[in-house]
Amino acid sequence: MTATVIDGKAFAATVREKVAAHVTMLKSEHGITPGLAVVLVGEDPASQVYVRSKGKQTVEVGMESFEFKRDDDITEKELLALIDQLNNDPKVHGILVQLPLPAHLDSDLVINSIDPAKDVDGFHISNVGLLGTGQKSMVPCTPLGCLMMLRDHHGSLSGLNAVVVGRSNIVGKPMAQLLLGDSCTVTIAHSRTKDLAEVVRRADIVVAAVGRPEMVIGDWIKPGATVVDVGINRIEKPEGGTRLVGDADYASCAAVAGAITPVPGGVGPMTIACLLANTITACCRANGLPEPEGLTA
Ligand code: NDP
């Protein structure tokens, strides 16, 4: 079997189109321009690339982008004051603090100071609790993107066996909650899981979020299963230079799976698209307006 390739790049473009259409409607019918504020502390090169890309895509869909760059010697008090200002700014519907923060700042404290209604990353403890109890919440962008692609590919996910490899707060755990919410039978695997290969072989859906290049191999995949590869790893090429690979070994998995997300071009592009989707959702909720269909869990 050769797997169907789930094209995250194309899917993300359709999500952005839906977001842009909704922004146009909010502007023309309600005089509202959705706004996203991104806070970047320090000079981490990867974070700078992400923040630039987020700002560019925010503007492209017609929303307002507010960027706050601060030196890495900012005090916690100063950062909390900035977040308080954004919490109270009616032009700002979504707030994202780019992680990781420098070590002297308490990330949990900072994230939990964001107004949960504006927490478009879905990391605030209130949103984590709402998601865990099946209530309306802001949903973390990467797992939301995975869920959208899975729903699109499978239709109903009800009753499917899903194995999420990885239990981080930003990917693994919320992914498992979302799959449970769609009535999958969910197993969460991690570094202490015994006989991971056997666990993964039971899965109709495998989500690989481990941060280990090409760890999940085709031999572990049940024929016809769907593989969602969240991993982004840069590895050295034998001939020199580097290339991006996922947490699944694409060639061997694609030979067995029914469907697979590639790296790059799979989950990655969906993450920022879902950030924009979450900003629209937050804006609609803040203004008591109906949320757009298909842009949230
Ligand atoms: P973390 O490092 O926070 O978590 C990794 C998880 O994998 C942990 O739960 C860990 O288990 C588990 N793990 C590590 N080694 C093994 C192993 N040998 N067997 C089984 N489980 C293992 O990573 P993240 O969740 O933040 O990210 C995961 C991947 O997704 C990374 O490649 C990251 O770059 C990528 N990513 C991609 C995004 C995108 O937009 N596409 C967004 C966010 C992340 P334990 O808890 O026991 O240590």
Structural class determined from secondary elements:
alpha/beta
Q: Which overall shape is indicated by the principal axes computed on the Cα atoms?
A: globular
Poorly predicted tracts of residues: none
Strand order of the largest sheet: 1-11-8-7-5-6
What is the level-2 CATH architecture name of the largest domain?
Answer: 3-Layer(aba) Sandwich
Report how far apart the termini are.
31 Å
CATH class of the largest domain: Alpha Beta
Instruction: Please tell me the total number of domains.
Output: 2
CATH topology of the largest domain: Rossmann fold
β-strand percent reads: 15-25%
Kindly state the number of beta strands.
11
SSE ordering: EHEHEHEHHHEHEHEEEEHEH
Number of helices: 10
The residue-averaged pLDDT reads: 97
* Main beta sheet: 6 strands, parallel
CATH superfamily assignment of the largest domain? NAD(P)-binding Rossmann-like Domain
Percent range for helical residues? 40-55%
Any idea what the radius of gyration is?
A: 19 Å
Structure explained in plain terms:
This protein is an alpha/beta fold and 297 residues long. The protein folds into two domains: 30-118, 3-Layer(aba) Sandwich (Rossmann fold); 141-269, NAD(P)-binding Rossmann-like Domain (Rossmann fold), CATH 3.40.50. 40% of the residues lie in helices and 16% in strands. It has ten helices and eleven strands. The protein has helices at 8-30, 45-60, 76-87, 107-111, 125-132, 141-154, 172-181, 196-201, 250-254, 267-286; strands at 4-5, 35-41, 64-70, 94-97, 161-165, 185-189, 205-208, 226-229, 233-236, 242-245, 259-260. The strands form three sheets. Strands 1-11-8-7-5-6 form a six-stranded parallel sheet. A three-stranded parallel sheet has the order 3-2-4, sandwiched between helices. A two-stranded antiparallel ribbon has the order 9-10. α7 (172-181) links the parallel β5 (161-165) and β6. α2 crosses α10 (267-286) and α6 packs parallel to α7 (172-181). The mean pLDDT is 97. Bound molecules: NADPH dihydro-nicotinamide-adenine-dinucleotide phosphate (NDP). NADPH dihydro-nicotinamide-adenine-dinucleotide phosphate binds next to α10. NADPH dihydro-nicotinamide-adenine-dinucleotide phosphate (NDP) is lined by residues 142, 165-168, 170-172, 189-193, 196, 209-212, 230-233, 247, 267-268, 271.
